[in-house]
Specification:
The structure is a homodimer. By secondary structure, chain A is α+β, with helices and mostly antiparallel strands. Chain A is 47% helix and 15% strand.
Chain lengths: 679, 679
């Protein structure tokens, strides 16, 4: 995306730049840019503190320490995975919320892991040195995997520290990140979904909003609340309009570096296929949820996640299908290519664009058609089998998720005692079988073996009901039983996993080779960009810590001015405007607190910071590094941001820090928490 | 499907047959079979009366006359299209139901047309004579279309009678049907959707059920209720368990004659693609409905129809994906093929199976990728353009829907004053543009022309808001303005239609050629079946009148006995069992009537009659020809019936006639109607 940076936001050539594009690396912050645009020079201490106050959730989001005793603030929708796993038919934390009256009432999450980034080292030279010029793609992938495994292991201390090599700029740079891990994470407070997700799927990715999309966890160590000296203090009032604010979080993935050929492939093939699959599971889970209120509860979290993805991807597709967006990408690519071709030293890089195009079209032809597995139990069966296989290899040769550096995290998932619902598993497995039959044709030998003479629904019912894998103790026992035991097991899910495994491994191998081809090509494209346009650019998002920033600022839409923030009182008006619609009823706790609440308190606000999925739960801070907000969404206009940043209408949406404090104090009377904030 | 008839239900070789398979032609009823199995010999008068008491709805269902003054009974979900079109934001007939207090309060449907079959003539020889052996496929299709147009015109009297040539046995037989048309159809009574569709999408295609899926229209002529001497009298008590009952209705389509190659194509390609498209529009309409209660009302009817199709097709796909179903089809096909190959006189027919396979795979490659149009206004634009083009040709050369025989029906649709909602049209058009871009790739020149430099959403908004086609008077004026005016029109929808038209016409031409190839091949396959297995077989469903029959009979499911009928009192238990779920609340009218209702009244019942979509609204009669029920659904096990009939668990689901009368009398106090029934 550095290719486009100059074109869209000429910040590096002119100080009159209009936009605050960028998801910046903490070890390469745009100091000059911040000074020019916002008169702000972040000190090393400022950024180090913010980095260490930020955490990543393994369930796919961001968060921050907000007290010295391990309190962590994130979104309700980031915590939802845990809220769901901690809920039962009789204790519905999603619907009713939760507040721990005392520290010993905080609820331990079954499999939540938080990572705090503590150091970054550039290891590009070491990684690139491992791959000699002229090596075959497969050999290059193997060599790269080996050096990365060694580097990661060097920074890992089981259960406490984890090393991770991050591929940046599409493959032009490699950094070794060291994380402090927290795997004893406990739920402290969560509001009701009715207010956390007020307006439901209809309001998701929309603005104005009125959502208390927040919840609070605490990290524990050795049976005590952990000591977390780097935490964010609460701002007294939050930001004013046009104040610049800073977002520290883990944007998961952007594709701004992608070539026009790769984007066209996304637009015409990959995204439409993903959307078909998302809609398929959305309908399936809706149908399952129609069976009864308990089934609706069981499906709720996964259904939300699918609906969220569906809406996000529709926005991305709309961006790519807009001819003006593609025109901008095409022009920028042609300009860069022309500069490359005219420069004798760069000329040899020009082939990279063709390589990307070739890889995109080859990729589709090499898939086995085995769809990604949605049944948790079948996924566990495959993990057990592959774990036993990988354990027979040295660390460097293993698939990365089975490496020593990843082992503790893998086992936390594999042996989690989060509930698994047999009826839901059946439905998911039956649908997956149907997908498999569609993808490969039902006459395919693998399909026939999987069905074993039954219909898909009967096969799924038989396999789930007679498998023993839903018991974590059984999984733990099987994990140490060795490959032969697993291969000879009569467990029907292990048998299905064994049928699939050879082709899934072949898929993985070819995907690794294609990824290596892409890495080599994009590394060349990035180097071309550095040479032509300079190196003060940020890499695409990689679900690692980045800093974004921009002013708090409303926008115009269909002739209307959309204000920069909403108020708590506005939630009641919003409820009234949507009378008769589901998901627009404020919960009883709020109705009761109405008269005591300061209705003028800012509720949600927007800023132009450059964010994307994964940033959910990111703290928003002011120049003083004080917490002023909590990112929870982007508006619909921000979704093409996967490919291209604009600040005309695209906005990041946050819960205002004052609204969180007001709700904690007045609605939830969470005095214990309020007192601990900022201490 | 005659191929399979003997194999699955050996009724013609053994009187111990277990099943009542068959959707029989009224001019070729299985008299011998009925006598053997049920000791019943339908007289010519019995069947003629039943045929003339039956009607077909152009909105896609069946019905029957139930008084001598034109009262017509059908399903609420068949009438829903009209209920929706007659509703506004302030008058929601779907939600609140309707009862006309007097004849002059009956509400005229905007575009409903009922067809009463009055005669059948075998015209096979005339149609086949028009196609000489050795003619090219395209020439054969043209010649066949011409002779069919002539025959249809000979039986048509504009506005009163319509001729229709029906292709039977896949192309082995052609019958000329003459219909009496009723185009002044008025709504008399409809219950609330809450009871008509009690249990909603969750209960759809399930059993036991508790639905009053009924409504009543009246046909008018010359400003008076029409005189309809052939009508069904109401049975005093309805059927007992194991009584044989008869269903007279219009099953829309079955594919039982299809070869294994064609079914595999359905299973692995066509059905999955259709399901993707259905889910796509289901999510789209759900999302649109989330905008507000009025939007939910606007989308309701179309959303129901899509959900209904989605569930039906999932059941069909589950049937084809069941290896045992395909094994039965394969064995039957191989047996017939073997018999054909061994018989010197039949041997030349054996190539037909390969032709079907070739056509199925060719078809997919010849499509322009233009998706079927969901925006009513864009569809109207295309119709106007094609109408002007077709009018320049003689009747015999026109596309069938523009022939003289079809003209009155076409104009009723084209000039209908049913409401068209601009916001919904925008959403549907934008989604269709997105589909078009996905199908053809967004760089395709047609896509670029359609977008005209805008995003799909912007293009749709601009086109819908500035088109004048939503005014029926404008459409009427344009329809008589001539081709040149239409081609030069600045109306954006006519411009888009003009862009699409050439390719849509090419699609149509190749589809006509493929259909002709299929007709020739299936005619040969059917003749082979006649020769090997006899001619006492029924043809696949063609949305024309058929007679089905079978006993009222419960079944076993997961070890449970499912009773043959439910009672009105059971609806309250069902409501209680589903407390907290949407679509399980009995309407206020029923709650109020509870104490006055006879709770023992049978509500819904099941029988083994062979039905499929299109049979909705079919009368169910007893041996005396009295009305005992109203078909409204098949259970989930009946859905593979598109390919294969079984009576183990597959059942047709009806509203019991006594429940309709009890509700009319007690809940709706519709004395005017109750008194008219059977008079």
């Amino acid at each position: 995306m550095r290719i486009l940076l100059l074109l869209l936001t000429p910040v590096l050539v002119a100080s009159t730049a209009a936009a605050d594009e960028g998801m910046w690396l903490f070890n390469d912050l745009p100091v000059e840019l911040l000074k020019q645009r916002h008169g702000f020079e972040p000190s090393a201490a400022w950024s180090e503190h913010l980095m260490r106050a930020s955490v990543r959730f393994n369930s796919g989001g961001s968060g921050s320490f907000i007290s010295s005793s391990g309190l962590v603030l994130t979104n309700h929708h980031v915590g939802a995975d845990t809220l769901h796993k901690l809920s039962t038919a009789d204790r519905n934390l999603m619907e009713n919320g939760f507040l721990a009256a005392a520290a010993d009432a905080e609820l331990k999450a079954p499999d939540l892991e938080l990572s705090q980034l503590i150091s970054i080292r550039d290891v590009t030279d070491e990684v690139q040195a491992a791959v000699s010029a002229g090596t075959s793609t497969a050999a290059a992938a193997t060599a790269r995997r080996a050096v990365i495994a060694r580097l990661e292991k060097s920074a890992t201390e089981t259960g406490r520290l984890r090393g991770q090599v991050v591929t940046l700029y599409g493959g032009a740079r490699y950094h070794l990140y060291q994380y402090r891990l927290y795997s004893d994470v406990r739920l402290v407070w969560a509001p009701e979904t009715a207010i956390a997700f007020f307006g439901g799927d209809a309001d998701n990715f929309e603005y104005p909003r009125y959502c208390l999309d927040a919840c609070i966890f605490r990290v524990w160590e050795d049976g005590q609340p952990a000591t977390t000296p780097d935490f964010l203090r609460w701002s007294a009032d939050g930001p004013q309009e046009n104040d610049v604010v800073f977002v520290s979080g883990n944007p998961a993935r952007t594709s701004r570096i992608q070539t026009v050929a790769a984007l066209s492939h996304q637009r015409d093939h990959a995204l439409p296929a993903t959307l078909d699959r998302l809609r398929r599971y959305e309908i399936l889970l809706q149908q399952y949820g129609l069976r009864g209120t308990e089934q609706a509860r069981r499906a709720r979290d996964e259904l939300f996640s699918i609906q969220n993805s569906r809406k996000a991807r529709l926005g991305m597709l709309a961006g790519l299908q807009d001819p003006r967006v593609m025109q901008i990408k095409t022009t920028a690519e042609q300009e860069l290519l022309q500069a490359v071709r005219q420069d004798p030293e760069l000329r040899q890089l020009a082939g990279a664009w063709d390589k990307v195009a070739a890889t995109a079209s080859e990729r589709a032809q090499h898939s086995s058609g085995i769809p990604s597995i949605r049944s948790t139990l079948l996924r566990r069966a495959l993990q057990l089998l592959q774990l036993a296989e990988e354990d027979q290899k040295p660390d460097e040769e293993r698939l990365p998720e089975f490496s020593d550096a990843s082992r503790a995290s893998l086992e936390q998932q594999l042996f989690s005692d989060a509930p698994i619902y047999a009826d839901l598993e059946q439905v998911l497995l039956a649908e997956w079988i149907s997908e498999l039959l569609e993808a490969r044709g039902a006459d395919d030998p693998l399909c026939i073996e999987v069905l074993d003479g039954l219909s898909g629904a009967e096969r799924a019912a038989a396999a789930i009901s007679s498998s023993r894998l839903s018991d974590p103790a059984v999984r733990r026992e099987l994990a140490s039983s060795g490959l032969q035991t697993l291969q000879q097991s009569a467990d029907p899910l292990l048998k299905i996993a064994a049928l699939l495994n050879p082709e899934i491994r072949r898929d993985r191998e070819s995907e690794d080779a294609f990824a290596e081809q892409d890495r080599q090509a994009y590394a060349a494209i990035a180097e071309a960009g550095f040479a032509v346009r300079g190196t003060s650019v940020y890499p695409d998002a990689t679900f690692t810590l980045r800093l974004s920033f921009g002013p708090v600022s409303g926008y115009k839409q269909n002739g209307e001015t959309i204000p920069a923030w909403t108020t708590i009182g506005g939630a009641w008006k919003h409820q009234q405007q949507h009378a008769g619609q589901t998901d627009y009823s404020l919960p009883a706790s709020w109705q009761q607190a109405h008269d005591k609440l300061n209705l003028q308190t800012p509720f949600n606000f927007v800023c132009t910071a450059d964010i994307i999925g994964g940033n959910s739960g990111s703290p928003v801070v002011n120049r003083e590094g004080e917490l002023v907000g909590l990112i929870f969404d982007g508006n619909i206009q921000s979704l093409p941001g996967n490919y291209i940043y604009t600040d005309r209408q695209a906005r990041a949406v946050s819960v205002h820090s004052s609204a969180i404090r007001e709700a904690l104090r007045v609605v939830y009377r969470a005095n214990r928490i309020v007192e601990e904030l900022g201490r």
